[in-house]
Amino acid sequence: MRFQLIGVNHKTAPVEVRERLAIPESRLPEACQKLAAHPAVAEGMIVSTCNRVEFIANMKNGSGDLRDFLGEYFQMDPAQFEKHLYEFRETDAVRHIFRVASSLDSMVVGEPQILGQVKEAYATARAVGAVRAQLDQLLTRAFAVAKRVRTETAVGSSSVSIASVAVELAERIFGSLKGKCVYLVGAGKMSELAARHLLAHGAASIFVANRTYDRAIRLAQKFDGQAIEFSRLYDTCDRADIVITSTGAPHFVFKREHGEQFLSRRRNRPMFFIDIAVPRDVDPEMNKLDGIFLYDIDDLQQAVSSHVSDRKKEAEKAEAIVNGEVEKFQARLQTLDVVPTIVRLQDHLETIRSAEIDRVRGRLGTLTTEQEMAVEALTRGIVNKIMHTPISTLKTAARDPESTTVIELVRRLFNLQDRDTPAPAGREKESAASNVGSGPGAQN
Fold this sequence. Notes:
Order of helices and strands: EHHEEHEHHHHEHEHEHEHEEHHHHH
Strand order of the largest sheet: 7-6-5-8-9-10
CATH class of the largest domain: Alpha Beta
Largest sheet: 6 strands, parallel
Oligomer: single chain
CATH superfamily of the largest domain: Glutamyl-tRNA reductase, N-terminal domain
Number of strands: 10
Structural class: alpha/beta
CATH architecture of the largest domain: 2-Layer Sandwich
Mean pLDDT: 82
Number of domains: 3
Distance between the termini: 35 Å
Strand content: 5-15%
Helix content: 40-55%
């Protein structure tokens, strides 16, 4: 990891400083391209909101500094903003991004907008080719961490009614409700109230399905929506981003297989189910589907009754989730760093082995098939035994914070520095699959 992040936010800089560093949405693609083109930067992205401006990069070497980019881009001396800047590198940068995406660094802890803003910043940078490789992995993981925080804690609970809680949860999932479609299954008062709140926050259209079709028509007319016959529920429900269900049915109306069908037809675009029925309309198994977010009446009421002290406790749970995810992400990246070195070492020694056999082949005379196989087995065995210790050391180093030092040492010892020549066809896949997991020479 060679991550660096510098920025300002509502806690470190007044608005007059933040606005000087802010980058309008229209200029963000160009700014990301310039960031990624900077000599010290391998890939980068920029998050610019009313409360924060952050520059995130995977640096080409450990000595690079994003302050150089700030000075060039804004045509100013970064020193004048130094007292307002914060900086994170390596693991600390990962932790900060996870916390930001999870809304643990926001002015109001748990507010839903920041996740959507980070996703938009990531999409912009990725679209112009500024985000690749490790930053892509970092942001993808950050979104997964944010989902865990969102679903495993109540850190964002602050609304004062079932309906407003529903809106808050929907916004937390989608970032913005603008253009989202709402499907009412059942025509009860509470679902009607939740629908009103959702439309007031930007939802675009309403579908209504009810076992009594006349009631569906009347409720749909209140919202200038469309009534759907109940028999067409499963054929049309995938049109909706948000489903509010309250039917009074004695059994589950929606089961896991329905959710799988909806996600397939929606090409895995997420759906949010608000189940305010008692008995419940939605099988809890639906919540296990990646892309389905389900909240029932108990979940909503718990959010309504939460207090400030509860939020603090939930924030502590969220911080624990983030810390655990940081450790897992770091370990994964270190393992990925080790694999190319192992593959290069294997290829390097295999090249030497093959060359030596070719060099002495003329002196060996004509060999039988059995003799050829014996020479191959002998030389491969010697190479495997030579590789065993350095490769075992590299694997162990992948779990160590000082792994970069060990990797560089092995590269220097075997002259593997700056090799851009790709491995022979099929070799990398074979090596990574068969040798990295078991260790060369383990049986010799």
